[in-house]
Amino acid sequence: MTRWNVDDIPDQTGRTVLVTGANSGLGRQTALVLARRGATVLMGCRAPERSRAALEQVQAGGAAALVTLDLADLASVRKAAAEVRERTGDALDVLVNNAGVMATPHRRTADGFELQIGTNHLGHAALTWLLAPALRPGARVVTLSSLAHRGGGLDVDDLNFEHRRYSPINAYSQSKLANLLFALELDRRARAAGRDLVSVAAHPGLTDTELTANSVRMRLPLLAPLVSLGNKLITQGVLTGSLPQLYAATAPDVRGGEYFGPGGFGETRGAPTRAAASPAARDPEQARRLWERTAELVGIAPDPA
Hints:
This protein has helices spanning 25-36, 52-59, 74-88, 115-131, 168-192, 211-219, 224-234, 238-241, 243-250, 284-298, and strands spanning 16-20, 40-45, 64-68, 92-97, 135-144, 197-202, 259-262, 272-274. It is of the alpha/beta class. The radius of gyration is 18 Å and the shape is globular. 50% of the residues are buried.
């Protein structure tokens, strides 16, 4: 696996993939590579009018279409899931839960959730459950986590920071831990239900995306260009950063419950390899509690139950 790159991706002809947050960064790169390898790619994007350039870029390499998806609005998630099911005829091969926000000011989603847990975890969990009937036997769900999942832990009883002092960094860390807990719990429940479904997680290490600059832009817009430049100096490129999730989505030897990240120093850069999840991420009791609390908050019956 140490030298694995996009040339090692098997032919994806006949496979249909949904990538959330496909208008920029890791999502756009993932969509572009999979389209070039033959997949039909549905690009879940919050603002279609601002995603036309990304769509045209992906379409230049293969088949792609936009799906309007705002993960911070459950009505939008429901509508997008229904559209994907109709477009695919309930025949989806890969779902890449890629989209996310990072270290934002204390804001709420359309449904009143803290923005980061609402977008990064709750929206993706709802989307995954709603699309479960469309996932073909052997389909994969790839959920993007982060090195930050090792941060401040997760409070299942206060996911929305209603009883704690809000911290942008802790809220981001919590959402990324939730992503990993969800991916591993989905694998456990699929196995228990006898469902032929591969649920895995991935993280990009330190990669040059717009997440950091966007976070700064919300508070100190004049510093955003400087932060973006500094980010480029310490991170790897988006193509390399996308390799763990591409591996998770396509490699023949992937098994449910695995976690992939860069194989270089501290999992910060390099070719994909199997990554180390923190003890908190491997806690089945915490995963169960998060699963049940998530279902309560989003109002959707989990599938698999």
